[in-house]
Amino acid sequence: MSGRAAPFFCPYCGDEDLRPHEAGHGAWECGACNRAFRLSFLGLLAKGLTTGERP
Ligand SMILES: [Zn+2]
């Protein structure tokens, strides 16, 4: 994951009317609720990748 993933739904109102925000990298704006937000990659989880097996 590179941090360039695009959101499909607004996290605030759930609408799909999202477009890139002028603030740039990872910033999006919602045309439905007029909110701008930024997605950022925080890091990998300590538990690592799951293989489908349960401990
Ligand atoms: Zn919205």
Overview of this structure, please?
It comes from Streptomyces gamaensis. This is IS1 family transposase. With 55 residues, the protein is mainly β. The chain has one domain. The chain has no helices and 3 strands. A 3-stranded antiparallel sheet has the order 1-2-3, with no helix packed on it. Strand 2 and strand 3 form a beta hairpin. The two termini are 25 Å apart. The model has no long low-confidence stretch (mean pLDDT 85). The site of zinc ion has 8 residues, from loops. Zinc ion (ZN) binds next to loops.
Quickly list its features.
elongated, binds zinc ion, three-stranded antiparallel beta sheet, mainly beta, single chain, 18% strand, 55 residues
How would you summarize the topology of this molecule?
Layout (H helix, E strand, L loop, with lengths): L17 E3 L6 E4 L5 E3 L17
Antiparallel strand pairs: 1-2, 2-3
The site of zinc ion has 8 residues, from loops.
